[in-house]
C-alpha cells in the first residue's frame, strides 16, 4: 500500500511538471525509458497496468496503446498494437516486449520501412531493417535512428523491383533522412560481379541513371556498330549513376567501306576523342571551347580544321549563345562571328495557356567575303485542358531572309513550317500535322486509343511523296511488381502497291532489366527518307 501511495504521488508531480501529451494523462509514472501514463491505472503485484490511451513518452519518442503493462522489478514493458512517433518517423508496432518494439512499420514522407526489432535506447537501435524509397529497396542487418540520420550496418540497396541483379553494398552507410542521401564505402554488384567503388553516394529518392554502355546495332546505310559508349569510370564520392568520367570505344561501319574505330574520354564538359579508319580525326573540348582536326573529311561540308568558342547565357526565359568560329572545309574557310538566341514565355489563365517562343540566329563572316546569314522563326502554342478534355494548336516555322545557304553547315538552320492540331478526350486522341506546305508537303492525320488493360492503338494516314496508311500497336507496359513480362510494339505501313514499312520493338522484362530488340524496314520512304533495314539492341534498368 505504501508503494501504491508513492507511485500516485510521483505520478501527480510529474503530470503537473510535464506539458507533453502523455504528461496530461490523469496517471503518470517516470521510468528509465520515459514517462508512462494512462487514463486508468491498476496494480497487480509487481505489474503496473496503464489503460485508456496508455502512452510512453520521452524526447523524440511518443507511443500509444490500448494498454501498457510495466514490470517494475525488471523495468520492462508489455503492450500490443502501438502507434506513435519516433525521431520524426510515424510508428506502428505489433508489440512492445521488454524494452523493444517488435514488428515495427516506419514511415516518413515517401519512405517506408519495416524493422523486425527496435530497441528503445537512445538513439533507437533497429534489427532486420527493410526500407522502401522511390528509387531503392534497402535492407540492413542493424540500424541506428536519429531525427537527422540513420546509420545502417550490413547495408544492401537495389533499384530492381524483383531480385538483386543490380545492387549497392556497403558495410556501413549513413542515410540523411531530409535529403535521402546515402554515403559509405560501396561496391556495385552487376549480376554475379562486384565492382569496388570506394567512397560513394546514392539518393534514395532518385533512381540511378544506369544505362547499358554496350552498343550492338546495324544501320540502314550498311555496317554494324559494336563496342562501349559512355562506359563509366567512377571516382570517390560521386553519386551512383551520375559518374562524370566516361570512356568510349566503338567500332563503326563493320562490314562496309566505312569501317572506323572511335576512342574517347570525357569528364563532365571536358573531353577528347579520336577516330581511325574512315573519316579519321581528333577532337578536344573543354567547357565552351572546341578544337577539331580531320585530315580526310568524309564530305565537303565536314571541317578539316575547326576552332570554336560558344558560351551559353540564360536569364529566366531568355537564352543567348554567341559563337566565334574558324573552320576550313572543302568549299569554305574563314572566321564566323555569330549570335543565336531564343525566348520562351507562357501566359496561363485558368484552363487556357498561350506559349510564345521566338528565336533567331545571325552570322557574320569578317575578312572572308561571304554574305551575312540570318535565320528567324519560332513558335506559338495555344492549349486548353479541363478534366479529360485537352486541346492543342501549335505552329512553328523558320525563314532565311538573306540567303538560304550559309558557307558553313554549323550555323545552317533550314526553312520549315509545321502546323499541329490535336485533341484528346479520355482514352481517345485525334491529331493533324501539316509540314512544309510550300515545299515537300507532308500531311498526317492520326487517331489513337489507349487502354490500361488492352494497350495503345494508333491509325494514321500519311500523304507526302506517296500515300500510306500506318497501323501501330503497343502492349500495356508491365507493372513493376511483375517480375517477368514480355512487351511488343509492332508497326506496319501500306498503300495500294503493298507494304511501305515494317517495324517491331520487342522487350523482355526480368526482375531488374528490360532487354530490347528494335527492327525496322523502310521499303518506300517519304521524300529523302532513308530506306532499308536497321536493327538495334538495348538494355535498360526497369
Structure summarized in a few sentences:
A hairpin with a 6-residue loop joins β32 and β33. Helix content is about 5%, strand content about 65%. It has a 22-stranded antiparallel beta barrel. The chain has a 15-stranded antiparallel sheet that branches.
Structure notes:
With 542 residues, the chain is an all-beta fold. 3% of the residues lie in helices and 64% in strands. It has one helix and 39 strands. It has one helix spanning 2-17, and strands spanning 27-31, 34-38, 40-44, 47-58, 61-71, 76-86, 89-98, 100-108, 111-119, 124-132, 137-145, 149-158, 166-176, 181-190, 193-203, 214-218, 224-232, 245-254, 260-267, 270-277, 281-286, 289-293, 305-309, 313-315, 318-328, 333-343, 345-349, 352-364, 373-386, 389-399, 416-425, 428-435, 442-451, 455-463, 467-474, 485-495, 498-509, 513-522, 532-541. The strands form two sheets. It has a 22-stranded antiparallel β-barrel. The chain has a 15-stranded antiparallel β-sheet that branches. A hairpin with a 3-residue loop joins strand 33 (442-451) and strand 34 (455-463). It is elongated, with a radius of gyration of 33 Å. The model is unreliable at 1-18 (pLDDT under 50).
